[in-house]
Amino acid sequence: MSLFTSVDHGSTVTKHPGLAAKEARAGRILIAPYVIFFLIFSAYPLIFSLVLVFHHWSIVGPLEWAGLDNFAELISDDVFWKSITNTLLFIIIHVPLQVVVALFLAAVLNENIPARGFFRASFFLPVVVSGVAVTVLWKQLFSTDAGLFNQVLAWFNIARVPWLSSPDWAMPSIAVMATWKNVGLYVILFLAGLQNVPRSLYEAAEMDGAGWWDKFRYITVPAINPVVVIVLILSTLGGFSLFIEPYVLTGGGPMNSTLSGVLYIYRQAFGFFRMGYAATVGLALAVVVVGVVLIQRRIVERED
Amino acid sequence: MTNRWMKWIGFAAMALVAFSFLYPFLWMFVATIKPETEITEVGLLASSYNVDNYKVLLDRIPILRAFFNSLIVSVASTVAVLIFCSLAGYALARLRFPGRGFIHNLILFTMVMPFQLTLIPLYVLMVKFGWVDTYAALILPYTMSAFAILLFRQFFLQMPQDLIDAARIDGLGELSILFRIFWPLSRPILITVGIVHFMGIWNEALWPLIVIRDEMLMTMPQMVALFAVAGQAEGQFGVQLSAAALMTLPVVIVFVFLQRYFIESMATSGLKE
Question: How many domains, in total, are found in chain B?
Fold first, then answer.
């Protein structure tokens, strides 16, 4: 977390007033590109989003004052709320799955087994491959009639599963795919956490007669708790950014069961050309994201 | 004895999981060269192999052009980030100027600001600038990253002050100190920022889908995503998979050679977030 600490670091030569002024001038020049970037690409969109949410706008033609119409629509918009519950469903499946699988793989990789480097790289491969490529690949794996999954299930006489064509299965299927895609990153993060635990601690615990579970519960878990927090937050943010997977696999269907928040923004803006309402959905989604992350933090910190 | 058993059970479990990560990719590459009727089979063996799918693909969409576009956009944006973000990181870490703390807080703020909030207004900005369907829309909003600035700042904070003082006495300006003295000592952070940013832009699909309509300017993820959802490839598993395979192959090759850098970079950046 040292990234966020503010250190008063400066030149020791700055005691001389002329040199201090020179240093300040250099500082202002070097930071100028960021300030310009911030004003154009962060500040302006931020302010304009607060304008947009009070207007109707199809992007051609003038802005039309809408008062609180967009917010009134949002509250009674079942599809919007569906997109929020979809995202929460995705997170409820994806995040714990991610943590458990990543932790398991990292724990085994942390032991002295052969070919560790190869395994680590294998798990990491889907992380670097484009999400679009992975999704197109999984679209074939998920196919109800000819997909690999259903063919393998058929070997065991298990009936075909409508992975993407049933509203009950589609979102869990996407959550599993997303876990496969991202788990390698979290394995690496957990491994880094585990490697910080001194071996001697485990040896001492073994001498005291601690079993596998005791060692895991009282040594490993406290040591990796900070990593768990990072994994929770990163994969939650990932859940709220969900877009390309449903876009390619299902288009948000069936029956809006995989419609994510971002996909809904996209649909409102570029399907229906309702910029004001799309911006309102974006604002609402941002509020939910910040809310969920704050709640998570509070829960995790209380457990410490 | 039990330890040895555990070791091999662990190895077997890892081998099984690794298989489930690698086989789909292997299957994808092989499926693209199978005859149309055998593509969906689980195994890798086919009665014959051909490259018809790729011929059809190249015929339907300008995917090589998309590869080239992705390359231009990712390289340009990464070079810009390395230069501009190290400038800002240097200023924040080593130069005392009024407003430094405030700007540091601004950067932290933009990092926690959800992108969903500014997505539509940013698109509107592109429209107003007349940047829709230009490289500018793909590159300029990604010439800086709050996260990269913070990584550079943190790295530069650890450099000894003597280095700077000596350089100043020799008459070097701040830009020379940054690029001629700090940069050669900053390989790890340059690699980390470079890889993480490049991968982010290379794989980005949402933003190009929003600002690019002209097929000749599309990036690879965008073009393949559109191809997979549009009627163009309806029902043709092989052609869609070929598009995904073409997108995956360069990444796999680079990853095989540079995997240590990839893994270390993504791990550092993840832990610092």
Answer: 2
